[in-house]
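ok, trying the design again with the full structure, not the truncated one.
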């Protein structure tokens, strides 16, 4: 952790008790879990590698998956929702997928992440959702949001930590902070925060490294966010 974390939250005792991430996922992912990722998909990639070696006869249900990452360009996002910085783009680098592109492609091509169709436990609806930079780059924790959250009576522990952390942060950087991962987490709690397009993600080579984009693809089971409801997002955080 950085010194900022210790300055903000106090001393944290070191610990050497840990398991490899893919083993933790293997033990805990099942039909009723929702996994939110906010980093390169290395552990999920390792889990899928181990599953392939075990020669599964049928696809297990690893639950729902929300990935903070990906990119939807002008060919997917309605013109009125395109952020100015991304106007005219159909592909873009995205760190959380580029951090391990092989694992990212394996996850996106897998059929292990889905939710049961109501009324039939043997039929599954494929469900991977990308909370991508074309939307989350427009989400900023600024002074206005800080004041709104501080006014929440008896905030739950998670919200209290956010308020504690951002009080000091905004003293140094009053312009605010990008708020990417919390948007993905709240969309996992309430998917109607986002407007989603069903797509087929793809990767191509660019001058500055791998670029990611999406093509509209009905029936893919992979959905990418194209806009978000700010008030519903704030409600999810405060409730």
């Amino acid at each position: 952790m950085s010194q900022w974390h210790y300055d903000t939250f106090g001393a944290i005792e070191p610990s050497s008790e840990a398991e490899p991430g893919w083993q933790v996922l293997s033990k805990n992912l099942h039909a009723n879990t929702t996994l939110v990722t906010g980093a390169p998909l290395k552990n999920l990639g390792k889990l899928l590698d181990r599953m392939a070696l075990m020669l599964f006869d049928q696809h297990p249900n690893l639950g729902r998956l929300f990935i903070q990452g990906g990119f939807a360009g002008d060919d997917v996002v309605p013109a009125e929702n395109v952020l100015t910085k991304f106007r005219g783009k159909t592909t873009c680098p995205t760190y959380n997928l580029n951090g391990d592109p092989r694992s990212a492609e394996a996850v996106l091509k897998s059929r292990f992440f889905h939710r049961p169709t109501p009324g039939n436990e043997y039929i599954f609806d494929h469900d991977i959702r990308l909370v991508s930079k074309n939307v989350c780059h427009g989400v900023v924790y600024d002074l206005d949001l800080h004041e709104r959250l501080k006014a929440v009576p008896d905030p739950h522990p998670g919200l209290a930590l956010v308020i504690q952390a951002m009080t000091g942060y905004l003293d140094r950087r009053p312009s605010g902070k990008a708020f990417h991962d919390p948007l993905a987490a709240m969309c996992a709690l309430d998917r109607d925060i986002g407007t989603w397009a069903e797509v087929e993600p793809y990767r191509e080579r660019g001058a500055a490294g791998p670029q990611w984009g999406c093509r509209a693809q009905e029936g893919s089971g992979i959905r990418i966010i194209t806009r978000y409801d700010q008030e519903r997002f704030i409600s999810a955080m405060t409730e």
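Keeping the full-length input from now on. DSSP finds ten helices and eleven strands in the chain.
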